[in-house]
UniProtKB/TrEMBL annotation:
Residues 24-35 have a biased composition (Pro residues). It comes from Propioniciclava flava. Belongs to the LytR/CpsA/Psr (LCP) family. Residues 1-99 are annotated as: Disordered. This is LytR family transcriptional regulator. The keyword Membrane applies. The keyword Ribosomal protein does not apply. It holds the Pfam family LytR_cpsA_psr. Keywords: Membrane, Transmembrane, Transmembrane helix. The chain crosses the membrane at residues 107-130. Residues 178-321 form the Cell envelope-related transcriptional attenuator domain.
Length: 414
């Protein structure tokens, strides 16, 4: 039906002028045809999805790719904005964010840093309180060697002890100062460290003083002359010096709660104020001092005393590094505080050199170091200085040469 017929029917004109109802009614208007979609090219499947107003197909995700400089279009589904009952709906379930996993390696690394800071930090904090002394020799010195050599000296000076302490410790009241103990702590570039006793009665040349017992060098010129004597008789350059007196030794041993020593026989010695049974036992500082100083009751004399001194250093290092000492902060602080007040180091011995010495002591305490003595040829030679110890010059020279080369095993030369 045309638009004219519609108007005639509405206004009752023409065929509809009679005013009577008509069976005819205008048919519903035909909706305009939908725009034709572009035909797909031959051989291509027709894309399934939505089309935009221009008739172009949308992307597979339901939106056209955003152009350069245009914000991306959020994918929509029926019910999204622009459609009845719309609301933004994700095209799929949102993936959960993965939880960060704590790696065990990181935990171990953090714990290791904390432990090292604790173990190293406490000694560094007490280091400034350690007394210093001039132990650097004058004149020409031997060349540096691949390893490191430290001199450990035990002074028998009674100057810091009261009369009561001298009686209690059995030290006597001799004037002056000498060295009851002389050791070389050798740390090679690789291999085993070595703790080497130098018998205090060793008969050697002392610079400017002729030949005498080596402990007389300390009495004549203190640490400087002792170090110079050792360097000239061994050909080794000394890298550090550490000294402890009677009172300091007792304080350090007591700070760790005593050390375990195992005398094979019962000992009664008035000179060292010693009365102990045979067998392993925990010795206090005073008892340990008497045990390592005693020589008149030892059939080996000075050589037997040197053996006990090496045993004492090993036992003390083991006790200092035991879990009972390291894991208790107040115990670890007390030990380091006692050490810092009891030891005297050379002016040239800095924290790094002392750390190397402590590292070697750790090896001694854990059984990873050798304990030796300078090879002896005659333990009871008659000299101008009285009964003395003579080195085996050939074997001793071989040992010192091996140390100059930085060898890590000195046992073949002992």
């Amino acid at each position: 039906m045309s638009s004219t017929d519609d108007e005639d029917w509405l206004y009752r004109r023409g065929d509809y002028a009679s005013g009577e109802p008509s069976d005819q009614s205008p048919p519903p208007r035909t909706p305009p045809p939908e725009p034709r979609q572009p035909r797909p090219e031959a051989g291509r499947p027709t894309p399934v999805g939505h089309y935009d107003a221009a008739g172009a197909p949308l992307s597979d995700a339901g939106s056209r790719s955003a152009g350069v400089g245009e914000p991306p279009v959020s994918p929509t589904r029926p019910g999204s904005p622009g459609e009845p009952g719309g609301g933004n709906v994700p095209s799929g379930p949102r993936a959960p964010r993965p939880r960060r996993r704590v790696r065990p390696g990181r935990i171990v690394l953090v714990l290791l840093v904390v432990v090292l800071a604790y173990v190293i930090g406490v000694p560094l904090a007490t280091w400034p309180f350690m007394p210093k002394t001039d132990a650097t020799p004058a004149g020409t010195r031997p060349a540096d060697t691949p390893g490191h050599v430290f001199v450990l000296a035990g002074s028998d000076s009674r100057a810091a002890l009261s009369t009561e302490e001298q009686v209690k410790l059995g030290t006597g009241n001799d004037a002056g100062q000498r060295t009851d103990t002389i050791m070389l702590l050798y740390v090679p570039p690789s291999g085993k460290a070595a703790l080497i006793s130098v018998p205090r009665d060793s008969y050697v040349p002392i610079p400017g003083r002729g030949k005498n017992k080596i402990n007389a060098a300390y009495a004549f010129g203190g640490p400087k002359l002792l170090v110079q004597t050792i360097e000239q008789n061994t050909g080794l350059r000394v890298d550090g010096y550490v000294e402890v007196g009677f009172g300091g030794f007792v304080n350090v041993v007591d700070a760790v709660g005593g050390i375990q020593m195992c005398p094979p026989n019962a000992i009664q010695d008035k000179d060292s104020n010693l009365d102990i049974p045979a067998g392993c036992q925990n010795m206090s500082g005073a008892t340990a001092l008497g045990y390592v100083r005693m020589r008149h009751a030892d059939p080996e004399g000075d050589l037997g005393r040197a053996k006990r001194q090496r045993e004492m250093v090993s036992a003390l290092a083991k006790k200092v590094l035991s879990p009972a000492t390291l894991l208790l902060p107040w115990q670890w602080w007390g030990v380091n505080s006692s050490v810092s007040q009891s030891l005297t180091v050379g002016n040239d011995t800095g924290p790094m050199e002392f750390a190397g010495l402590v590292s070697a002591a750790m090896k001694i305490g854990t059984g990873q170091a050798d304990t030796l003595s300078v090879p002896v040829g005659n333990p009871n030679a008659h000299t101008a200085a009285g009964s003395s110890v003579l080195w085996d010059t050939k074997k001793a020279a071989a040992m010192f040469d091996a140390m100059k080369r930085g060898e890590g095993d000195l046992t073949p030369y002992a």
